[in-house]
């Protein structure tokens, strides 16, 4: 059977555009908007209704996993759970964090108990314009300027080097990027630095924050560490298209996961499209026989098995089977920031 790829328009009836065997989407902007905008909410619901009534349509990637990655609080809990399953000094870790839902009178005490300066402050929602606006805080006095809901995280010196891991199914690619320079550890009188993370870690970045003296050579994450991180996240999220940001602690040499994002830009990965096509073909081939078997059995996925109630999802953000053709998702214009 011939393969066909086309765009899906969520503003129109999906039944008239299908049937779809597989849908590849990047709905992160839309999912964020759906928590506050009725029109966006209806678009997400239209997709969910289609999936509920077409249980053998494959969605790359599942919406529940995206909601996890859109919420930095949930992402941090995920990374902590992966960390506790790993053993040994070389295990990957996630920097200590404090979650602030609202302004608290005990913020300083929380920081003293759990974090070390400098501290990096990130918005709770991990997508959209504000998600990349961050700050580096160097003393307790500056904590009064944080705006909840946000995540406060101990800054880890990493020789101004970021390793972006781009995952496409069973394959992954490591791309080296510039990052924030090292700072003296401990509390100092330096003023808070406000910055946009995109301006620091892009391949062509020339930010003053990433311009630093030559650092001693730090070994990149080993193949085993990268494999461990990718496998753990795939098992936890059920995703195949995502990115992971890794840094190497200048002091200990251990690797830290500082961010996970859905369907990144894959900038610098020249093999992305061949890898994606290979992954899509593999999914469709592997599921063809199982779909034929399930269609006549009681094991067919039901609507209730996969239904998502947007009301149960986190406030800041308020599926798999077979075929031979695949489709990409088109939505109304929203800013793409990854």
Layout of helices and strands, plus pairs?
Blueprint: E1 5-9, E2 22-24, H1 28-34, H2 38-53, E3 58-60, H3 63-70, H4 72-85, E4 97-100, H5 107-114, E5 119-123, E6 133-137, E7 150-154, E8 161-168, E9 171-178, E10 193-196, H6 197-201, H7 223-237, E11 241-248, E12 255-262, H8 272-294, H9 303-306, E13 326-330
Parallel strand pairs: 1-13, 2-3, 2-13
Antiparallel strand pairs: 4-7, 5-6, 5-7, 6-10, 8-9, 8-11, 11-12
Structure, described:
By secondary structure, this protein is an alpha+beta fold. The protein has a domain of about 120 residues: Rossmann fold (3-Layer(aba) Sandwich), CATH 3.40.50. Helix content is about 30%, strand content about 20%. Strands 4-7-5-6-10 form a five-stranded antiparallel sheet, with helices on both faces. Strands 1-13-2-3 form a four-stranded parallel sheet, with no helix packed on it. Strands 9-8-11-12 form a four-stranded antiparallel sheet. Strand 11 and strand 12 form a beta hairpin. The C terminus is likely disordered.
């Amino acid at each position: 059977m011939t393969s066909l790829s086309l765009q899906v328009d969520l503003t129109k009836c999906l039944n008239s555009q299908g049937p779809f065997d597989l849908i590849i989407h990047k709905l992160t902007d839309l999912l964020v908007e759906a928590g506050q905008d009725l029109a966006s909410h209806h678009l997400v619901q239209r997709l969910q209704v289609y999936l509920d009534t077409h249980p053998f349509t494959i969605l790359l990637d599942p919406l529940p996993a995206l909601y996890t990655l859109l919420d930095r609080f949930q992402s941090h809990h995920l990374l902590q759970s992966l960390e506790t399953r790993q053993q040994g000094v070389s295990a990957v870790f996630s920097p200590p964090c404090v979650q602030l839902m609202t302004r608290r009178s005990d913020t300083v005490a929380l920081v003293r108990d759990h974090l070390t300066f400098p501290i990096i402050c990130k918005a709770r929602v991990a997508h959209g314009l504000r998600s990349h606006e961050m700050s580096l805080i160097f003393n307790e006095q500056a904590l009064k300027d944080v705006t909840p809901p946000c995540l406060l995280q101990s800054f880890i010196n990493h020789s101004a080097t970021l390793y972006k891991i781009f995952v496409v199914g069973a394959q992954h690619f490591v791309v080296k990027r510039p990052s924030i320079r090292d700072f003296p550890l401990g509390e100092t009188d330096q003023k808070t630095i406000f910055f946009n993370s995109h301006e620091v870690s892009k391949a062509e970045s020339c930010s003053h924050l990433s311009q630093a003296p030559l650092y001693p050579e730090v070994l990149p994450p080993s193949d085993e560490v990268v494999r461990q991180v990718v496998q753990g996240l795939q098992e936890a999220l059920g995703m195949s298209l995502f990115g992971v940001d890794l840094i190497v602690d200048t002091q200990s040499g251990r690797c830290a996961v500082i961010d996970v994002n859905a369907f990144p830009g894959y900038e610098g990965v020249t093999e992305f499209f061949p890898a994606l096509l290979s992954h899509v073909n593999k999914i469709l081939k592997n599921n063809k026989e199982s779909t034929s078997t399930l269609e006549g059995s009681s094991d067919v996925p039901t609507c209730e098995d996969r239904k998502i109630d947007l009301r149960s999802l986190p406030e800041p953000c308020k599926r798999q089977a077979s075929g031979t053709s695949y489709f990409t998702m088109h939505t109304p214009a929203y800013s793409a920031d990854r």
